[in-house]
Automatic annotation (TrEMBL):
Keywords: Thiamine pyrophosphate
Cross-referenced Pfam families: TPP_enzyme_C, TPP_enzyme_M, TPP_enzyme_N
Homology family: Belongs to the TPP enzyme family.
Native source species: Haloferax mucosum ATCC BAA-1512
UniProt GO cellular component terms: acetolactate synthase complex
Full protein name: Acetolactate synthase large subunit
Thiamine pyrophosphate enzyme N-terminal TPP-binding domain sequence ranges: 1-105
Location of the Thiamine pyrophosphate enzyme TPP-binding domain: 395-538
Residue ranges of domain Thiamine pyrophosphate enzyme central in the record: 201-339
Listed GO biological process terms: isoleucine biosynthetic process; L-valine biosynthetic process; sulfur compound biosynthetic process
One GO molecular-function entry: magnesium ion binding
Record's keyword annotation contains DNA-binding: no
Amino acid sequence: MDTSERLVESLERLGVERVFGYPGGRVIELFDDIPESSIELVRPRDEREASVMAEMHGRLTGQPGVLAGQGPWVGSLGLIGQMEARLASSPMVAITEASERGNYSTIAPYQQSRGDYGGLELPKILDAVTKEHWFPRTPTETVRSLQLAFKHAVAGRPGPTAIILDGDAVTDDYPDESIPPVWDDERQTRTWTAAPTARDVAAAAEALEAAERPVIISGNGVHASGAYDEVAETAEAYEAAVVTSYLGKSTFPETHRLAGGVIGSFGHEGANQLVSEADALLVVGCRMNPMDTNWQAPEFIRPDEQTIIHADIDPRNAGWVYPADVGLIGDAAESLRELVAAGDADNDWAETRAREARESFHAPECESDAVPILPQRAVKEIERVVDENTIVTADSGNNRFWLLNYLQTPAVRTYFGSGGVGGMGWATPAAVSAALATDKHVIGVAGDGGFTMTMTSVETAVEHGVAPTFVVLNDTSLGMVRQMQRGPGDIAGVEFHDTDFVRVAEAFGATGVRVETPGELGDALSDAKTNALPTVIDARIDREQDMVETLQSSFYASVGGLHE
């Protein structure tokens, strides 16, 4: 067999069910062998959508999502998903190539990207985004590199890796024996779970037992670890209120008696106040970035007054932003299981304060029958069809903050948002990927700007027989940017042509419906849930509802407001 056949064989052995990609360059060799395998090829309209689909697959399943495509485009359009994967800790493997032209490579032929004078340097581009990348030059190096790419994508803090195929190596015969040898795919990609030391666990348990007002901050690392039960067990053991970071939303059911909501600059006021009042904070799988910490507002988290226990898979993250009193270094599930076994505590504070904090999920606007639809009410209509067998994907912009605040998730793994690099256009291909990977109903929510960027993903859903619901919160503008204006029209490029998304959906073979009242939106969402085709709901919302004015945290406002 040649190397490309051996690569496909490795992908099958490693349990890869689908590859997201676009044929081109020497990756065509791989695409030529996929039809003879058990692997499904998902080919959207461009590498951007494929990269987001691969990222979401990794985030949702914990197994690397595979992106395949020609080098110049995986290194440009396809960087969107890879950047999100790097910052959102999603396991992902990009299989690409440098479009080499053999003896012509040193004189910069068309599309060449191996780094010779006059050409692009794909390795440098990928080095800036991936955890690790490889540029093998022989058949055996190529297979070993693929194995290492899968291993490093999930080892420690997950993230994207890449392998750049060399033209000759892909087409050359794969040797039966080699020095050094190529080991079995499953054995070579095996990883082990890290756990904290007994001393650190004992110190953390002692601090939580002594606390009168303990709060757990549950971050994206809980999604990555799958430590949902362990968060709940730890909260129950120490009677601690639980809040989440933005990327950690739905790591803990927001209807739970100890749930307090989402912290951060545009998070829940109640959740932010909970953290400020705490005397002990257990931070799990959250790096505490500026958005989550209200840009380090002085009254929000106070290391001199609060005991901070920081649990993270990466020792560099523990105590990175705020000095930690105890570090629990290891997999989140392992750390929390050890904590539950080490102690317990009780208090009269957490349940009462969490219940009060959850009031932030509601506002009078959520019940408004106004036309155009208020975004708060639109989110509540979405919430009515969300159950434990539903996944919501949220885009960037105002829409994600309305969702973050007013969608009260009923179970874990019911909400995922673009919050790593936070690129627009993420929610729609992510929804298609989630529908392919699960048997759950999926609702992708975006503004009209973000939806239009990747709306050809609707066609991909039709082609593959899945039926997500796509909700377009349509204000015919870049709403968040438009609302940053100091006066009407002082920022260029914020207004959009009023696109007919119903006709767009129908052109792709999907169902389209335009809604202008809350009742119409509720009916459309219910109908979409049972529709065998994807449904695009063009929901006309009130563009005058100012997200920042409505949702800005008081702590965030205290340090000067919008940092964009």
